[in-house]
Amino acid sequence: MSSFRSAFFFKSVASLADAPASAGEIAFAGRSNTGKSSAINALTGSQLAFVSKTPGRTRLINYYALGTEQFIVDLPGYGYARVPDATRAPWERLLGGYLQTRAPLCGLALVMDVRHPLTELDQRMLGWFYPTGKPVHVLLTKADKLSREAAQKILRRVEAEVAALAPNTSVQLFSSLKKSGLEQAAAVFRAWLEASAPRSVGVAPGGEPNMKTPGKTGGGEIKAPGPKGEISPGQNALRFKASRSGRRSGRRPKSPRASESSRGKRFPWRIF
Ligand code: GDP
Prior knowledge:
The chain has six helices and seven strands.
């Protein structure tokens, strides 16, 4: 975990063009209040991610440097408050553009509260990100809030559901409070970063090109993610609305397959 423990705040960006040159980065996403900041802080052994909660930074993409041009990237939490379309649209463009086109992004850490896993927004995120071919690792946070047996049961259920929804997704229990699951998560993220070391174009677990470019990748680089998920810079990639019921934690759609329709389409939900 040493590389994570040396992390430091690098910069906040409001535009992909301002993203730093990067040899590999892992993005953290999740519904607001699921424990994303706490998870980043637990992994890095710092209070880094509370930077992202300071006024003015809440809708920016925050970069934490791991050294050697690798980064943890803290994306704003989704699915919490309602804001006007005019405020929301630019931010959704930024997030959607980042997730679908950022070449150095080697995988997504998706944070969910173990008591309310795989909300409709989470499922849409999984289905929408899947065509990039990049892996996802789900952190089921606040595992300390459940008994060991109850947490294990949810872990198995979520594993089964993501296997049907986005097969290149792994899942684990995590507790920032108890500091449990840290090594397991760090091992996954470390492996992603090592695999993303500047080399050649590879094939990600989803069977699609992982879009790694040889050598260092510049800050604003935009690459189409694949046959199903193309967007272009500036395109409003983020037009979608979750039903109000889907915005509530714990509400489940009829089937995890329900999200398949969102695969490869425009960024599929109302984030705030
Ligand atoms: P974020 O909005 O997703 O970044 O969530 P935060 O990291 O700010 O956490 C939201 C709330 O959940 C805070 O009150 C945290 O103290 C609490 N929390 C976060 N992680 C854990 C955890 O692992 N266990 C427990 N019991 N509480 C947690």
